[in-house]
Design brief:
The protein is an all-alpha fold and 137 residues long. It contains 5 helices and no strands. It has 2 domains: 94 residues, no CATH class; 36 residues. The longest helix has 35 residues.
Length: 137
């Protein structure tokens, strides 16, 4: 049994608060927050962090989905199609991750995060530019 101290509990509570808030308000996956924080601040291995993140995200995703569904903000047809494909590939992808060297897996994860950051930044700049142009219009 692993015992954790008060500071770890406080840190994990803050991590859950941050990730839950970001996931529910901005729609970002909690793994974007959980995995890097668990690896860098809590000394988890990459695979351990990914597995723990997935287990943590499940209840968060369920609650956020219910809230957004109540507001009619879920396109169920797309959710079911994409979710079905995700279910079909999750098993083999998890097996693949378990066979990979953790350092390589960490690097792949970092590249994916960097690509997401670039994409999100570009989109934010486009939205900002469109908003400024509309204000001037």
């Amino acid at each position: 049994m692993v015992l954790i101290g008060v500071f770890e509990i406080i840190g994990l509570l803050l991590l859950g608060l941050l990730a839950g808030t970001l996931a529910a308000t901005l729609g970002v996956g909690g793994g974007i927050v959980f995995v890097p924080v668990l690896v860098s601040l809590f000394a988890f291995g990459q695979l351990e962090a990914q597995g723990t993140s997935l287990a943590i995200i499940l209840p968060t995703a369920i609650i956020a989905t219910i809230m957004h569904a109540r507001a009619s903000r879920v396109v169920w047809r797309i959710a079911f199609v994409a979710g079905s494909i995700g279910l079909l590939t999750a098993f083999s992808s998890a097996r693949l991750a378990q066979t990979m060297d953790e350092k390589l897996l960490s690097k792949v994860f970092a590249v994916v995060l960097a690509m997401l950051a670039v994409r999100m930044t570009r989109r934010a700049w486009k939205l900002r530019s469109a908003s400024v142009a509309a204000d001037r219009g």
